[in-house]
Amino acid sequence: MLYWLTEFSDGGDVFNLFRYITFRAGMAFFTALIFGFIFGLPLINLLRRRQGKGQPIRDDGPQTHFAKAGTPTMGGLLILSALLFSTLLWARLDNPYVWIVLGVTFAFGLIGFADDYAKVSKQNTKGVSSKLRFILGLIIAAAACTAAAFAHPEPLAYQLALPVFKNTLINLGWFFVPFGMIVIVGSANAVNLTDGLDGLAIMPVMIAAGTLGVIAYVVGNYNYTEYLGVHFVPGTGELLIFTAALFGGGLGFLWYNAPPAAVFMGDTGSLALGGALGAIAVCTKHEIVLAIVGGLFVVEALSVIIQVLYFKRTGRRVFLMAPIHHHFEKKGWAEPQIVIRFWIISLILALIGLATLKLR
Description:
- With 360 residues, the chain is mainly alpha-helical.
- It has one domain (2-355).
- 64% of the residues lie in helices and 2% in strands.
- The protein has 13 helices and 2 strands; from the N terminus they run ααααββααααααααα.
- The chain has helices at 21-51, 76-90, 96-122, 130-151, 176-194, 202-219, 222-228, 239-257, 266-283, 287-293, 295-314, 324-330, 335-355, and strands at residues 159-161, 169-171.
- It has a two-stranded antiparallel sheet.
- A hairpin with a 7-residue loop joins strand 1 and strand 2.
- Helix 2 (76-90) packs parallel to helix 9, helix 3 packs antiparallel against helix 4 and helix 6 packs antiparallel against helix 8.
- It is globular.
- The protein starts with 20 loop residues before the first helix and ends in a 5-residue tail after the last helix.
- The mean pLDDT is 92.
């Protein structure tokens, strides 16, 4: 929104700063962070009053989780509010990729909100049926992937870019849309499965978003793409502002979500942020790199799939409990120990993902 101030610039005044993506990204970060600090506690108090007993706790979960009874959920509203306000304030609103990612984020956020509301109002852990959530997610992802395909420059439309292999593209044709749908819906649900311990999901999401933001900035800059030998996707650099806002909003939320959590993110946040990561990957043509950067989410999702399939086939379990972070809880690891070690893994995977920009 504030980008229009550049119209008053003669190239040598303060308004010229608004031309620079890096300046606006930095301001988006601080805007979202301050928003989170200002409105975090009032929102938590409101949620606590409205929800009464808070988020229902699974009966078959680790016994330590029963101590969290009464903690309000839907804390993702804080992140999404900060993210929306900051992005609309600092991003160029004539950029299609900004609207694609915002659309996916808040559409998945609505699905998550409905699920959280159903759980809290009925005081059970079922919420909205998984089938309905999946169908709605596919519809949203289909619209986003179609829009991204039209926004991409002609040589890249409907193409799959491979990391490491320079100038290599695979023409997926219209299969690009269902492929992108899998990326977005899979990312949303993988982050949702990871959100099971205080602070466990938000930091890896922030790390992945920060990494994808750097990638978006690079692939949106012709000089960088020429030097690194990656595909140039004009306009995607503006997504750095979105990811900076997400990082700032995430830090504001983590202030209240750090153990012991004053509020849970809920499906409102986890589905929305996971969907956002998938949408950014599709827009920047880095869908495969997302699987590396978000490798922790992939492992969490795979642990559930493996557990279910193996149990149906043999009647036995591979893990003590799935997702895999609960397996380590059952083995006696303390919650902060699991959370911090998973953060470290996420950071390592993010660095590997960034390395693919140079390895050609």
